[in-house]
Amino acid sequence: MKGIILAGGSGTRLHPLTKVTSKQLLPVYNQPMIYFPLQTLLNAGIRDILIIVAPDHSGDFVNLLGSGKQFGARFSYEVQDKPEGLAQAFLIGSDFIGKDNCAMILGDNIFTHDFTSSIKSFKKGAKVFVKEVPDPERFGVVEFDSSGKVLSIEEKPSRPKSHYAQVGFYIFDNNVVEYVKTLKPSKRGELEIVDLANVYMQKGELSVESLDGEWIDAGTFESLYRASTIVRENDLGMDLEQISGVKIEVKNIKKPLTFDN
Ligand code: G1P
Q1: Cys staple from 193: which of 86, 112, 185, 251, with CB 3.0 to 4.6 Å?
Q2: For residues 177 and 174, what is the distance between their CA atoms, to the nearest angstrom?
Q3: For residue range 24-57, what is the model confidence (pLDDT) as tens digits?
Q4: According to the model, what pLDDT value does residue 152 have?
């Protein structure tokens, strides 16, 4: 299983903080935001990671993260010239994905959930993850029945059909590389992740899992503030005592998983 961290976008909701840097490099309590999604992938056993960045601050990501060696992983980088939707990551990342399955995490999403078992047990199709929220209209919204079958999935609907937000962590099988090419840009001109999930849903290959623990999309002032509190209270992130040394310790790290494809 390969991993993508999508850290592109212009972060306009956080202006002026993001005028001179990327959202995913902003501090969340004591660490740069991108450390947290990185920690989530590393803890889930994923070691081959593509980081997709916006052109303006791309060099800063390389300066911060390097080759991945320090984290016991291998990092690749691609530039997203223009932010044209989350699903665009699979076009940009198609060479990187190759013949593998792929998990993607958004660079501003912070989780306390452990995705290891979902990644380990994944065989085919697509899997999205949900969390019950009071304000579903801010997110992709998933409607599903008691057996976990997905009935609908919509991006920021004005009348949400459920209170379950699609969080920024997704697992796709290798067909994603072909399916993403069939998508048309939405009304807002973006290749939508919900449209990609819909392709799988129509084939009966989309499953959903509920999350344990905390989840936060740190893309607004309020959520960025709350993210710092969650990180502090849950002691999330890298072990900073090690940070000036050669190797950076990732708390709760698991052994890498091996996969047939
Ligand atoms: C994106 C996705 C949305 C998802 C959210 C999770 O929204 O489009 O489906 O629920 O991330 O963080 P954005 O935060 O980019 O507006």
Answers
A1: 86
A2: 6
A3: 999 999 999 999 999 999 999 999 999 999 999 9
A4: 93
For residue 86, the 8-state DSSP code is: T
Helices (H), 66-208: 88-92, 94-97, 116-121, 176-179, 193-202
The owner of tokens 């992130």 is: 237
Report helix, strand or coil for 36.
helix
- pLDDT confidence of residue 191: 96
- Token code pair at residue 56: 């303006």
Phi, psi of 149, rounded to the nearest 5 degrees: -75, 130
**Would the CA dihedral through 232, 31, 37, 238 be positive or negative?**
negative
Task: Tell whether the model's pLDDT for residue 133 goes beyond 60.
Answer: yes
Burial of 245 (0-12, 13-18, 19+ CB in 10 A): exposed
224 residue type, one letter:
L
CA distance 259 to 1: 6
Ligand 1 pocket mutation pick from 14, 186, 217, 223 by most atoms within 8 angstroms of CB: 217
> Probe ligand 1: pick from 88, 104, 106, 222, max atoms within 8 Å of CB?
106
**161-176 confidence digits (pLDDT tens):** 999 999 999 999 999 9
